[in-house]
Amino acid sequence: MSAAPQTPEVPTIVLDSTDQAPRLARRFLAEQFARWGITDDYMGRLVVCELTTNAYKHGEGPIVVRLSLDPDDGRPVIEVSDTGTGHPTVQPQDYAATSGRGLQLMAELVHEWGVKRLTGGGKVVWAKLP
């Protein structure tokens, strides 16, 4: 009898959709990056904060943050999901706007990013760090 292959557990935190979610997501990321030996977590904290803030402000239900290392290139991947139906998009530049630039800035900083619809409803916004 052979054992089933073990898949590594993906570090995950489930957050209430409150104004505390971004702070808790940043702390979760910093602690996990430290476990992985990633000493420069600035961009990761920025990205997880932006994605969690968007989920809190524009999404619905609990916010789920998952962190992983891409098995092909070892780059950190941040996933933030919620049950909302909205689809995040980078907004055209509006120099008079007082908000709405976060996703555009994040998109310019990361290696790649995207949105996946979930079968049961909701979405996952993910970003791979450089």
From TrEMBL:
InterPro entries: Anti-sigma-factor_SerPK, HATPase_C_sf, HATPase_dom. It comes from the Bacteria. Residues 22-127 form the Histidine kinase/HSP90-like ATPase domain. Keywords: Kinase, Serine/threonine-protein kinase, Transferase. Gene3D superfamilies: Histidine kinase-like ATPase, C-terminal domain. GO terms for molecular function: protein serine/threonine kinase activity. It holds the Pfam family HATPase_c_2. This is Anti-sigma regulatory factor (Ser/Thr protein kinase).
